[in-house]
Design a protein that fits this description.
By secondary structure, the protein is α+β, with helices and mostly antiparallel strands. It is built from 6 helices and 9 strands.
Length: about 280
Amino acid sequence: MLEPADLRAHLKRMEEDGYTIVEDAIEADLVEALRDDLERLERELAVVPAQNDFEGRSTVRIYNLLVQGALYERIPVHEDVLPIVEKVLDPGCLVSSLSSISIGPGETAQPIHADDQLIPLPKPHPPTVCNTMWALTDFTESNGATRLVPGSHRRDRSPDYGRPYDTIPAEMRHGSVLIWHGSLWHGGGANTTDRTRVGIAMNYCAGYIRQQENQQLGIPVELAKRFSPRLRELVGFGVYMGLIGHIDKRNPSFLLDQDVEQRMVWDIVSSEEIPS
């Protein structure tokens, strides 16, 4: 687990630069298992690249990975990553999306963008999105490492889509995790090598923001019943700040045969008791 001093250092970099890299965060056996299973899924699902510049014409993506096996349930709750995200957002954060991104040889650079670019809020604003990229292979400048514009999360606008910007590559060893503020300008790099760059995009949003992938409809209830209590909360079977997400004043976890006592915000007499 992250030491308190390491957590503080990562949060300082997040605040100043808009990103941080947790070196060697992922267990070696998990890296290998994920890489092998993604190859299996690509074959069995016959996944092919999209035909647009954003997703990539030589890039393979698999969405909604939480329905693809228990292996992927380890990702959103990872003890070396989630604590940083919870500090950037708050403990009521949600899984926004979980997908693989395999950038193949010959892929061109993705347009620079911000992940909160479509959220109609004036910038800069408090973080509403915090995203992560798990490196399952080494990430280098030549094979498509994510390109970043450090400090851009503090700017008062989003980038102009398709315009070139000065960037740096987020180079990291396999097993490392890149974490960034949703307002940070970034994009996937070009792959000029003969090998595929493989990563997993584990994206989070604040508890009051709509998730990118509809977790409640995209994950069958019977499947969600096997999730750990924390993962259930992360995919939306919980209530944010005693108000957002309830069903008739009940915690939605009852749909998973888990009846969690829920105090609604208006039932809390003292303002000091309001959840933070």
